[in-house]
Amino acid sequence: MASNPRNGRRYRTLCAAQRALALPCWICGHDIRYDITGPEAGRARWAFTLDHLVPLSKGGDLLDPANARSAHRRCNSARGNRLTVRVQGTSRRW
């Protein structure tokens, strides 16, 4: 049985490098709460999570830094495995 690549050193290093950039969420553009870490981050909507520009289920590379993006946990979950990003907070009411 193969191990989970998200538990590996290379993935953790990629997450740490992306976190160190302290970028805003690439989906909604708002600041990410980088101070939330550990088990609490798994429940916090505004905590950092590593997202992939090309989702893994669509052939994206898990460990490619060019495919890595900083996102809120909430935004990443809402996007799912779609290739497109719907800008949150927009309205069609004119």
Describe the protein's topology.
Layout: H1 9-20, E1 48-52, E2 68-72, H2 73-79
Antiparallel strand pairs: 1-2
Largest sheet: 2 strands, antiparallel
Low-confidence stretches: none
Please count the beta strands (DSSP E, at least 2 residues each). 2
Radius of gyration: 14 Å
State the distance separating the first and last CA atoms: 55 Å
Bin the helical content.
10-25%
- What is the ordering of alpha helices and beta strands? HEEH
Average per-residue pLDDT, rounded, comes to 88
Major sheet: arrangement of strands: 1-2
Q: What portion of the residues fall into strands of 2 or more residues?
A: 5-15%
SS element count, helices = 2
Tell me the overall shape: globular
- What is the structural class? alpha+beta
InterPro entries: HNH (IPR002711)
Keywords: Endonuclease, Hydrolase, Nuclease
Protein name: HNH endonuclease
GO molecular function, one term: endonuclease activity
